[in-house]
Amino acid sequence: MTTLSTAPITPYNLNQADPASKPDHSEAIAALQAQFAEQLSVNPTVCEQHGHTMTWLANQPPDAVLTAHDKHDVAKAVAICNQYQMPVIAFGIGSSLEGQLNAPFGGLCIDMHAMDAIVQVNNEDLTVTVQPGVTREQLNHYLRDTGLFFPIDPGANASIGGMVATRASGTNAVRYGTMKDVVLALEVVTASGEIIRTGTRAKKSAAGYDLTRLMIGSEGTLGIVTEITLKLFGISECVASGICHFPSIEDACQAVMMTIQMCLPIARIELLDALQIKACNQYANLDLTETPTLFVEFHGTDDGVREQAQTFADIIEEFGGTDFAWDTDETERKRLWQARHNAYHASAALRPSAKPLSTDACVPISRLAECVSATAKDIEEAGMIGPIVGHVGDGNFHVLLLVDTTNPEEIATAEDIIGRLAMRAIEMDGTCTGEHGIGQGKRQYMDKEHGNAIGIMRAIKTALDPNNILNPGKIWPQSLSQANVA
């Protein structure tokens, strides 16, 4: 059994910017204004909106915001920034959770929302090519009459470009995988302003390095994605959703582990603890039983779904699961999953005066029950409000701590819970983040998780972005993230 490390974790002050003065980028901004005119804004309010982050990290706005219309805008802007060694941060819709959008050294934010074209759907090959500003919901709405759908569902209506940048996961990951599994090819603007393509629409390749996978999850530090080719999937003949209750989080997690170990082809399996269910009830006027609960979904033929549901019922009975009910009614299914997708806002409403801090971790499925239970105990012993919800079918779960940021003791307690969860997950041979990414908030755990592999990563970063203009101050431990910043 792994013992949780007692080594001290250096705290990071989530309310302070990096201790670096912002350089003067006036020459670069003048060059950008000459090139882009009204597409470029230096309005302080607009800049502050683009330093937005859905956490309590301090807002660090860029010096200017460019609304990009196409890949050529992005390439020209990056080339100018590289010439003047001015940082560049790509912006989707602003749903990042670890400060990926902040500009600690100032610079240019490239807003990609106007690059929202669905370029090509290849029905026969089950692929689609989109621009990065296309959102998950927009894409599936477009595909609604094709019999195909895009399965990666992180909850928020995130942009596809942002989902690539953070290697997003979501509720369907247990059956359909994550972004790294569904991206076939990318078009990327490099740090020098060159446009390159990685990959093709072919299902596989043995030709050279896998640059597509290298870019996925790089959080805009290696290049800016301007086009994405994705795998699509056929909509199943039958889709059914269900819900069941458990006497404890431990029992619910054990049921999940058995479900996965029996290779049941379940599409979604989500855990909501009792407090999260209470939050959903209050937020959406529901009447769900306030106890640890699993939301599940089955995809397949009518007979296949019925068989999956029966097998699942047999599994949960072993772990005290009760009140299992499933239905193929689409309206009921949408109502159930809307409650799950509203979990962030529902949790925040439990303590409106507090700041919500969402964190995540991912562990091997065999360690899931242990990790979730220990984290729930940490929260309870600390006297904090922190609902737990997770895509537990792949060992990934989230904690949303509600923190009074005017209270130093409460801040310290929250940081300790986050640190313990991150270190516990790493020591269980898991990761400090399953889908939120590193950004600014989790840089201090990179050495612990990757060891001397950090040196290899840094060498790649230096080779591809020698002037460190692409989203500096993210991912790397602080001593590295400030290097070479103009």
Q: Please identify the oligomeric state.
A: single chain
The main sheet orders its strands as 15-12-14-13-17-18-16
Secondary-structure-based class equals alpha+beta
Number of strands: 18
Characterise the protein shown here:
This protein is an alpha+beta fold and about 475 residues long. Among the domains are: about 110 residues, Uridine Diphospho-n-acetylenolpyruvylglucosamine Reductase, domain 2; about 120 residues, Uridine Diphospho-n-acetylenolpyruvylglucosamine Reductase, domain 3, CATH 3.30.465.10; about 110 residues, 2-Layer Sandwich (Alpha-Beta Plaits), CATH 3.30.70.2190. Helix content is about 35%, strand content about 20%. The protein contains 18 helices and 18 strands. The strands form 4 sheets. Strands 15-12-14-13-17-18-16 form a 7-stranded antiparallel sheet, with helices on both faces. Strand 8 and strand 9 form a beta hairpin. Helix 1 packs antiparallel against helix 3 and helix 14 runs antiparallel to helix 15. The longest helix has 20 residues. It is globular, with a radius of gyration of 22 Å.
Briefly characterize the structure.
The chain is an alpha+beta fold. It contains 18 helices and 18 strands. The strands form 4 sheets. A 7-stranded antiparallel sheet has the order 15-12-14-13-17-18-16, with helices on both faces. Strands 5-6-10-8-9 form a 5-stranded antiparallel sheet.
Task: Please give the structural blueprint.
Layout: H1 26-36, E1 40-41, H2 44-49, E2 64-67, H3 71-84, E3 88-91, E4 108-111, E5 118-122, E6 127-130, H4 136-142, E7 148-149, H5 160-165, H6 173-176, H7 179-182, E8 183-189, E9 195-198, H8 211-215, E10 224-231, E11 233-234, E12 238-245, H9 249-261, E13 268-272, H10 274-284, E14 293-300, H11 302-317, E15 322-327, H12 330-341, H13 343-348, E16 355-362, H14 368-382, E17 388-391, E18 396-403, H15 408-427, H16 446-450, H17 453-464, H18 478-481
Parallel strand pairs: 2-4, 3-4
Antiparallel strand pairs: 1-2, 5-6, 6-10, 7-11, 8-9, 8-10, 12-14, 12-15, 13-14, 13-17, 16-18, 17-18
